[in-house]
Amino acid sequence: MKDFFIADAAKFDNDTVTSYFALSSLSVREKKQGGQYLALTLTDKTGTMEARMWDEIADVLANCSEGCYVKVQGQISKYQGKFQITLQKMRNAAESEIDPADYLPATLFDVEEMWAELRGYVSQFTNHDLKRLVFAFLDDGAIASAYRTAPAAKRLHHAWLGGLLEHVVTLVRVCLATAPFYPEVNPDLLVTGAILHDIGKTRELHWKNSFGYTLEGQLIGHINIAQGMLLEKVKELSPFPEKLRVLVEHMILSHHGKYEFGSPKLPMTAEALLLNVLDDLEAKMQVLRNEFAAAEASGKSPGEMTEWVRSMDRPLLDSRSYLKDE
Amino acid sequence: MKDFFIADAAKFDNDTVTSYFALSSLSVREKKQGGQYLALTLTDKTGTMEARMWDEIADVLANCSEGCYVKVQGQISKYQGKFQITLQKMRNAAESEIDPADYLPATLFDVEEMWAELRGYVSQFTNHDLKRLVFAFLDDGAIASAYRTAPAAKRLHHAWLGGLLEHVVTLVRVCLATAPFYPEVNPDLLVTGAILHDIGKTRELHWKNSFGYTLEGQLIGHINIAQGMLLEKVKELSPFPEKLRVLVEHMILSHHGKYEFGSPKLPMTAEALLLNVLDDLEAKMQVLRNEFAAAEASGKSPGEMTEWVRSMDRPLLDSRSYLKDE
Amino acid sequence: MKDFFIADAAKFDNDTVTSYFALSSLSVREKKQGGQYLALTLTDKTGTMEARMWDEIADVLANCSEGCYVKVQGQISKYQGKFQITLQKMRNAAESEIDPADYLPATLFDVEEMWAELRGYVSQFTNHDLKRLVFAFLDDGAIASAYRTAPAAKRLHHAWLGGLLEHVVTLVRVCLATAPFYPEVNPDLLVTGAILHDIGKTRELHWKNSFGYTLEGQLIGHINIAQGMLLEKVKELSPFPEKLRVLVEHMILSHHGKYEFGSPKLPMTAEALLLNVLDDLEAKMQVLRNEFAAAEASGKSPGEMTEWVRSMDRPLLDSRSYLKDE
Amino acid sequence: MKDFFIADAAKFDNDTVTSYFALSSLSVREKKQGGQYLALTLTDKTGTMEARMWDEIADVLANCSEGCYVKVQGQISKYQGKFQITLQKMRNAAESEIDPADYLPATLFDVEEMWAELRGYVSQFTNHDLKRLVFAFLDDGAIASAYRTAPAAKRLHHAWLGGLLEHVVTLVRVCLATAPFYPEVNPDLLVTGAILHDIGKTRELHWKNSFGYTLEGQLIGHINIAQGMLLEKVKELSPFPEKLRVLVEHMILSHHGKYEFGSPKLPMTAEALLLNVLDDLEAKMQVLRNEFAAAEASGKSPGEMTEWVRSMDRPLLDSRSYLKDE
Amino acid sequence: MKDFFIADAAKFDNDTVTSYFALSSLSVREKKQGGQYLALTLTDKTGTMEARMWDEIADVLANCSEGCYVKVQGQISKYQGKFQITLQKMRNAAESEIDPADYLPATLFDVEEMWAELRGYVSQFTNHDLKRLVFAFLDDGAIASAYRTAPAAKRLHHAWLGGLLEHVVTLVRVCLATAPFYPEVNPDLLVTGAILHDIGKTRELHWKNSFGYTLEGQLIGHINIAQGMLLEKVKELSPFPEKLRVLVEHMILSHHGKYEFGSPKLPMTAEALLLNVLDDLEAKMQVLRNEFAAAEASGKSPGEMTEWVRSMDRPLLDSRSYLKDE
Amino acid sequence: MKDFFIADAAKFDNDTVTSYFALSSLSVREKKQGGQYLALTLTDKTGTMEARMWDEIADVLANCSEGCYVKVQGQISKYQGKFQITLQKMRNAAESEIDPADYLPATLFDVEEMWAELRGYVSQFTNHDLKRLVFAFLDDGAIASAYRTAPAAKRLHHAWLGGLLEHVVTLVRVCLATAPFYPEVNPDLLVTGAILHDIGKTRELHWKNSFGYTLEGQLIGHINIAQGMLLEKVKELSPFPEKLRVLVEHMILSHHGKYEFGSPKLPMTAEALLLNVLDDLEAKMQVLRNEFAAAEASGKSPGEMTEWVRSMDRPLLDSRSYLKDE
């Protein structure tokens, strides 16, 4: 198992370490004195580190390639202010040696607790059909396993293992806090939508070694994958009220709120509208959180504007420094 | 059965006729001398006619309402240059008395011939799985029946019974003529897309008495209804090649070509792109055909521009009058 | 005082009544037999009624005009299914005879209770400066009086007397329910924004006889009027923390969320973003409520789609009829 | 004449070669030991190669500059995995030594054959005036020469010598295959539009050494250049039917289909609409072809999505790998 | 000749008049007592009046139709507050009896003076070629005649006879006032653009009986018609400097400033940019002038906002009433 | 005081100089032989120069940082065709040693003359209230001082000290030249708008060491800052005509002309419209001027197109080379 992490490199300056990494990039370069060497990038969930391998590279070239997990032995040193590692050995890692959770960023929250919280909300539904429907998903082993692991995005908000679940749990909480103010909104239906709206991400994204889109993800997309999953579960639960199926299906299809964001329908019910608004809010608030953290990490002082945030087309400001004194 | 049609009113001026109509509108008005009378609009596939009923309206009010089929007896006369009918009797028509085809406009082509032509194309597929798939739809009695009757739209292009089939047959012909110029395009896959892309319209629209949207049509839409129908058939045909399913599904989802036209995905394969372009072309050419006919009907001379065509944001011109002389 | 309301016309069929109305329209028409008569529209908070005055119209023409309050005497009768009134007398009403609340629709909630609730929230602020600031508005007699009476819009959402206060109170409640989920959000600042964001509507709109825009409202707009009101209050409270002033001012300016909706700045703080989202949600939910009521009033059955809703570019559906059975 | 091409460098590793190239870039750099050397880029139709010249650079600097053709002598060697050449000699090439076709990419099809095919279509026109018109262009020596050589674009689709002709010939074929399905379309007029629509590119672009825009190309554009060329030919053919001139002119002006693509008029005739749709289709299909080739060249496996394609705002997929097995 | 104008109807109440009009609409209606009568609309440059013809309508129906000039005799009377005329006689007017200027609104300025002013500006050009070019247009009898008569638009700004010339003269004045502040601008080139930019309107529009678009106007448009006229004149003046031709042509093509306004090129020179801005300003200021006049005519008081102005997507305010007191 | 400027480096090749600079960037790098050195960028109003400091860098690191002014001593030399400086000494400069005008680009016009010209225009106002209002700004010491120094932008047009004043003076001149052609325009009101419209830039931007946005600038923006400044001055001048205040306020708010450019209101008066158009023209003409200069500086020949100009989405052409010969 992996016991050295990249974030700890400073503690091992000039030491030789043996550990596992995901191999993010590999290129062959010419040595000035003739012959070839390898320039590599190694990754784990705590960061990224450059590596060089100067000798005996033939076996590596034959067996390792970008995207693999590797076991390496090498010496840590500092170059131009950054740590890198000079490798003596490198080989492919066996699947049994690897816990993918070591190589990808993951939620800071407890997955079991979040899962239990989510199930708790469903068990309190008064609408029997919706309760049957949502539990058909949560009790489906394959779906549940993916749901608890998937990130919520390739990048931007919640792009980490467990990110999907974390996003949904927060969203359900806000839904439950908001629904009482709108008598047009049925809380069971709203929460059903909140739990199922992004479930297609379990097939749109893959999180093996890195986060990326599947072929189905690119050609079909999570909205329509989720719709297909819903129809399949409804068929299994048959008979299921037709109109209720349409209402849930509509929430899934319309949850991006605009055609240009990939929703083929605009929200037309109170629940669909509220889900769209709160889902968008959740995502944007997470962007703010990430940007405030990034600004702090880059040395900005608390009361300064962040850099331009491309996804929101504006810079942001964390107002807390101006308010906390009182 | 219905033997008087509104288009023939001139032949019956001042005669009393007995016939069936769809009741498009009904309103109660005050007579100047006290009491009430009925102002009605009657419709069949050849047109629309105003009606008045001056006496004994109580039974009618109790039993008939807008959208029903009615049997009436009354006298034809001309008023302000238009024919209308003064009713002596009116009652609800029994379902057995009505052939809906008499009340809604219908394709001018032979449905059986078009259907046979379509099946003929599929029987020549070289791809076995796609052949299985399309026939699973065409051999499904309920689907086939609706497919052969449905209009292609509520208004605009092909808004008549059999319009969907007419649209698809023409589209398949153009697909087959065009595909050979593009080696990237698989003709079987393209024709599969052409036949299935609008199949959701059989549930998006209803054509009972008039053309309109179903609740599912408005909340889900024909693109996503078709996707659901595809997934159901694929499941029945299991095992079916996963990638092939994704390619067909992608064509359905992307056939409107733009997010703002309700497609949740843009066309990413050669077949999806070609289907989108030719489907759009077919619809626009039909708009031209309709507008040229409407201009002629309104008394425009052959070489004149049409009125402004809202759906295309421009006026149109039928160039034929300037070309036919040679 | 007014004791006959238009909604009660049926109870007075063929009776002569004496009452006050707002005169919405007045036109002079030619009698067939020569001479002139008046065609009028009378309005009160319960509806609108046509009126005719056949004789002795010279005094009326000299003294009354559209937009005035009038006192009339006349006889109620039914014409083409609607009640109208044939006037014997009509004169301008004195200001002392009129309670404007009788002529414009008004909130169904208790203004005093809402006002007390709003003040209660402010009194619990922990931020002393924000508390000082908001109370400077709420304790300003002229502002408070307008705030408690103003509609929130000329038409669309909350277009009635007290609508502004009703809108704000609901918004504050949702703000307080939502804020705890976002540690980046300071609740006092958020509620300050919620209370002040639309305060410019007290000068953008007028609600004398009817709802409309003031000249300042059209040329400056409520966003910038509010900004001016804020700067004036801040000056009175001097010294007031400069940064805090900028944060509040920013919330006011950005609360429409997009340039094309008239906000000269996009929300850049967590509070501004949340205020924008919840304010928009509140307005949209009110549109749904109005449309559901309008659909019911027009005779739609509970599970039907509403007509096309122009301001949202879609039809809507009240989902409750499909959910209430369980 | 040129007998060494860059694509063959591997066969000449460590040899000294003498050949001609287009000089794409030239910069003077400081040697570490003092003095200057030249860093150059050499180009021919098969690719691009870096070059260095260490000594006797004064003559070169005085006589050669970017964009010229040069004759060089130098030794091929490999550096960081790529071939480059160390020059002993370099001088300007005389015009007589250069066949521009060696330096720019060119169509893979036979220009004479395509030209004959195009003329064949025109000779079968039944409309005498359109036949006269198109031959007036094709028989004009200067225009014909440019038409057979011009690329269809600076970059993107058909950006190679003969690309314009290749694009037009394919487009005419598809036009002729499609026209029979639309009785509103006159095939002679359609093909006239297909042959003339891009003829302005012969003056919008230049293809001397590299592909680029002329001043007239940037300020006027190929659409309006073509319009001017049409008016000139029509004048020469006088008398020519006025209305027919307007119909052809309209096709040229509207062939981009949208204002934002530089068409000052939207297509209003059946021929203009069909030309616009098929021209756009041809260009997009060529983009797919290029992108599939580029993906393969970059080492993607057949069933993978391409990279993001900027001009189409999406990634693409070559579906053939999933279909060819059957 | 015409000596009664519609604007003078009040002076002829109950009199019988004989005069000429343009026949804007004609419809046949059923008399209640049987038989038919004519409902007509008559127009001259001062307005529009309803007419009725009760007897002897057969000759009229055989000879007159919408769009013709007619001579009528009839009696003026007032009906529902408006004047109308009851006709005894009506016949087609001979061309010799009609001065079109009596039937269409016309400029209030002196055409000869404006024309002389325009020629005066050109005679002071220091650039000989531009002087030759512009005079080639102004000295062309057919063009000059149309230029002095054409309206500048079908509706909106300067929609009256002579409107084009009026628009151009004002524009040239502003150009000459503004050019000195921008040394990048050549005044002769700018004025050349101002005089020629809209010259295509002489063929885009027709002004026979009413204002409308020609077929060439709709399919080609005034921008591209003007370009064709320029190329023809340049050919006549040959040799003419090629680059200068391109600069003038560019100004014509780009003067609408945006693709979506029908300009196929954006302004890229200082003169093209300035021409676009000032042309747009002139048109907008004329809209303001029209709207202020319309508001006054409709009874608005001087300091009130106008109604919503659709072409500018806002209401307008004439500020003068708030400024003139001092 | 600063007596060496970067633009003069060539005259000091290999000399040791002592001077002051703004420190634009500072980074610490590893020497190959161990230890660290500094890579720096120094700036003054004439340009930018790279610097290296090899020894005794500890004091510098402790005291200097990016954005500071520094005093340095070092030797000029040429490296890869550019001058750089090898530092022996560097320390923070005292504020008294620095004239910021030496470090930021500045207007080439005389500030005193421009200021006097501006005041001259105001002194000729016939509207007493507007004269009072504008002088209240120009006579306010703090505002006047900032007004005379501020740039008009961070980058793009007039991005230099005094740029705001330069922009406004030119704008006022064009306003005064144009206003006489539009009787709807009050010249005093127009010039008031021209002088005050951008006055918020004195607080939106800062110009200390470099040009940038203030926090208030980003959260509020110069349009709304100016509005606040106006309301404050109006209050000081009380009583001031309310309507006049609204008209001036409206000009400030609407001067960007479109919502998406940050104006919360569209121009609704003749003065607001003219100000918007001429302000935009001024800015664009300045962009042309800058781009023509940049093209010349980069070695383009006079008649060539510039590179693509991003802010205008097109390339530009200086037409003068084609016109000056005559």
From TrEMBL, chains A, B, C, D, E, F:
<protein>
    <submittedName>
        <fullName>HD family phosphohydrolase</fullName>
    </submittedName>
</protein>
<dbReference type="Pfam" id="PF01966">
    <property type="entry name" value="HD"/>
</dbReference>
<keyword id="KW-0378">Hydrolase</keyword>
<dbReference type="GO" id="GO:0003676">
    <property type="term" value="F:nucleic acid binding"/>
</dbReference>
<dbReference type="Pfam" id="PF01336">
    <property type="entry name" value="tRNA_anti-codon"/>
</dbReference>
<dbReference type="InterPro" id="IPR012340">
    <property type="entry name" value="NA-bd_OB-fold"/>
</dbReference>
<dbReference type="InterPro" id="IPR004365">
    <property type="entry name" value="NA-bd_OB_tRNA"/>
</dbReference>
<feature type="coiled-coil region">
    <location>
        <begin position="271"/>
        <end position="298"/>
    </location>
</feature>
<keyword id="KW-0175">Coiled coil</keyword>
<dbReference type="InterPro" id="IPR050798">
    <property type="entry name" value="YhaM_exoribonuc/phosphodiest"/>
</dbReference>
<dbReference type="GO" id="GO:0031125">
    <property type="term" value="P:rRNA 3'-end processing"/>
</dbReference>
<dbReference type="InterPro" id="IPR006674">
    <property type="entry name" value="HD_domain"/>
</dbReference>
<dbReference type="InterPro" id="IPR003607">
    <property type="entry name" value="HD/PDEase_dom"/>
</dbReference>
<feature type="domain" description="HD/PDEase">
    <location>
        <begin position="160"/>
        <end position="293"/>
    </location>
</feature>
<dbReference type="GO" id="GO:0016787">
    <property type="term" value="F:hydrolase activity"/>
</dbReference>
